[in-house]
């Protein structure tokens, strides 16, 4: 059997970018710049830890923590690689590496960014994966996000100047406008950039978040439903849709995208068990917008029937496969996930009820659902002693119904606990 030529074992070592993206890496030696990085004008380096020789060890899942030991091992191996990768980023300003390390090497820093702690490491790996693949586009958005998270975590004890975040946000906005979305593979990058930017703007500025969400969702709409070959599942779409839907519900406008209900059991990083309810929140927004200008009796009757259909589905809905939660989350997380699901269900019932019966009609039932939302949130917080994330939408719906002056004051005091910062 003929051998075409001697094989250089060094050529089996792909650069870090090609390795992460599972792309073909072509270069003469490991010290040379590969063809792909050269074509895209990217820095080309190989600084990740050397993979151990031999077969990988498989371990059983750790039921208590909700993560596998192999995941923890990969994360531990991953952090030195992140440190080395950040060390070779060109044109870094003083303190930027420390900010990115805060975001990408400390899972607890993402507490405000996910629905429960078990998703912190997974969210961090997604952020790091995207940064390696698209550093120039994401760097400023990540820095803005890091400043925001640091301020939220340490409150007034941080040494980071809040105005620094505005500079990074401005540059990240320019990066988003310049980002070409030409193929399905660009969806995740656009959503990652938009989510990091929206999160930072929400905390640092407070206005403009819906515009970011609509821009990202509108830009990627042509590729919705298209298979994304070779890419990871998009973990950012639900965040953008939630933020936009909340704004549309308040201002009675129509959301750009109706999220697809999952066909299998899914616990979302932001919406937890509530993904199956989000299409109905979209429909509620559409109906609410239509009711603004509709006076035709037959059209009103059709919209009311749609509301009745939403009510029927949501009233009977409950999360599926709850036994699987025990294998993935601790008891406090399960309590908060179930409470989140319950208040989203109650919020949808209350909102559809209010569109069917304006204020002054059937107020007793609306008040009951409003009180149930508040009681569920308070009960979960008292049992777990943890703040709940991503329950702003049902909280707002329930808060509108509070009429008693003393209860309104109490509701105002709850804002810091149940409205995301």
Automatic annotation (TrEMBL):
Matching SUPFAM superfamilies: Zn2/Cys6 DNA-binding domain (SSF57701)
InterPro entries registered for this protein in UniProt: Zn2-C6_fun-type_DNA-bd_sf, Zn2Cys6_DnaBD
Single GO MF descriptor: DNA-binding transcription factor activity, RNA polymerase II-specific
Keywords: Nucleus
Domain Zn(2)-C6 fungal-type stretches: 14-46
This protein's name: Zn(2)-C6 fungal-type domain-containing protein
Higher taxonomy: Eukaryota, Fungi, Dikarya, Ascomycota, Pezizomycotina
